[in-house]
Amino acid sequence: MIETLISSKTRVKLLLKFFLNSEVRSYLRQLEGEFGESSNAVRVELNRLEQAGLLRSQSKGNKRYFQANREHPLFEDIHSIVRKYIGIDRIILEVVKKLGEVEEVYLSGDFALGKNSPVIDIIIIGDIDKAYLTQLIEKAEHLIKRKIKYLIYSGSERKLFHTHHNKATSLLLWKK
User: Fold this and answer.
1) CA dihedral 39, 45, 48, 54 (to 10 degrees)
2) Residues β-bridged to residue 57
3) Does domain 87-175 have CATH number 3.30.460.10?
């Protein structure tokens, strides 16, 4: 879907990388390896996105780190498009409805780091109906054409989750 609007596959990968989780920062060689693309192709798109104001960069040592510009007027719109593209909005709606006492839902794994993946990892905190969750996950997987792995922490285990996970590796999607 998004590929029909944006013809550069490298640009699509960069938008997914930086706009899914705005905490993610990367430098040219890291992106080149991750995307399996030439440094020139990645550099050209990084420069275009930075010139448009969608990305910011900061030099540390001999590396130039890029990150989404959260203050850009289109940030929220692009963030929403990226979430819809990978199907997270559908997952959240399907998982939270009628599931029980859901307190928080997090995205983790590759997607939380801004990497496209055939598997979506979610963490749910709350006291929920696990059998019903399994049914909802099956429906959501069919809708978004991706596998979904999940981890559940009960409400009383909330502190355990917050002790072992950090903002860079898990992205809050929903909170009661």
Assistant:
1) -120
2) 66
3) yes
Fold of 2-77: Arc Repressor Mutant, subunit A (1.10.10)
Please list the pLDDT of the chain residue by residue as tens digits (176 residues). Answer: 555 556 678 888 888 888 877 788 889 998 888 888 888 889 999 999 999 999 999 999 999 999 999 999 999 888 888 877 766 666 666 666 678 888 888 888 887 877 778 898 988 898 888 888 888 888 878 877 889 999 899 888 888 887 777 666 787 877 77
* Dihedral, 71, 76, 82, 83 alpha carbons, nearest 10: 130
Separation between Cα atoms, residue 20 and residue 68, nearest integer Å: 9
Q: Alpha-carbon distance 140 to 125, whole Å?
A: 19
β-sheet bridge partners, residue 64: 59
Helices (H), ranges, 1-87: 2-5, 9-20, 28-35, 39-51, 75-86
Half-sphere exposure of 137 (CA within 13 A, CB side): 17
87-175 matches 2-77 in CATH topology: no
| Nearest-angstrom CA–CA distance, 32 and 41 | 9
Cα–Cα distance for residue pair 107/171, rounded to 1 Å: 5
Domain coordinates in residue numbering, the chain: 2-77, 87-175
